[in-house]
């Protein structure tokens, strides 16, 4: 696996790529992509970092795995490629934005437009085998993405972290809450949302209110 990551992140994370766990991870991913259909496409594995440069970063959203359905994943958590049907969690995200901010429901579930505004859409595991959820967990990706979170926490300030669901909430221990703003809620999946743990969290307006309070540009959700 070639580590083709934006130079602003390579500067901050370069040491990780030389560590033994990452070399083993790279070998695993390369073998998987050679022998199985995997997502996202190889050139999109680090898309979250390519669209959101380190110096522009102001919001982090943490997901767990890429979508494993045909041509859904584009390297950004919760996001799908243009012209792909929106998964239920993404539909619920847009419903909350509609209720929170009065925004019209978008025609596409491609969240590249968020990433370009400084929103890091980070999955804890960056690859998956087609139709096999969680198939690339426990291979080293989590160690790498935890290091990403710790690096952001240490080297940035006034970043908003949106932690949705039990898995993402566990990442709070990696974040300095004195320097950053952490918002938590249930996951936008139907199971959680329909039990009242997602809708009404107003995370999108709260994020922008915090950014305004720090004299930072808001996100056009």
TrEMBL record:
Q: Where is the signal peptide?
A: none
E.C. number(s) listed in UniProt: 3.2.2.27
Q: Which residues form the active site?
A: 65
Query: Where is this chain's protein located in or outside the cell?
Result: Cytoplasm
Q: Which UniProt keywords apply?
A: Cytoplasm, DNA damage, DNA repair, Glycosidase, Hydrolase
Uracil-DNA glycosylase-like domain: residues covered: 49-211
Note the CDD domains from the entry: UDG-F1-like (cd10027)
Which reactions is this enzyme annotated as catalysing?
Hydrolyzes single-stranded DNA or mismatched double-stranded DNA and polynucleotides, releasing free uracil
GO molecular function terms listed in the Swiss-Prot or TrEMBL record:
uracil DNA N-glycosylase activity
The cross-references to PANTHER family, in alphabetical order and at most eight, read:
URACIL-DNA GLYCOSYLASE (PTHR11264:SF0)
Which family does the UniProt entry place this protein in?
Answer: Belongs to the uracil-DNA glycosylase (UDG) superfamily. UNG family.
Q: What does this protein do?
A: Excises uracil residues from the DNA which can arise as a result of misincorporation of dUMP residues by DNA polymerase or due to deamination of cytosine.
Which NCBIfam families would you find in this protein's record?
A: PRK05254.1-1, PRK05254.1-2, PRK05254.1-4, PRK05254.1-5, ung
Which protein is depicted? Uracil-DNA glycosylase
What species is this protein from? Mesonia aestuariivivens
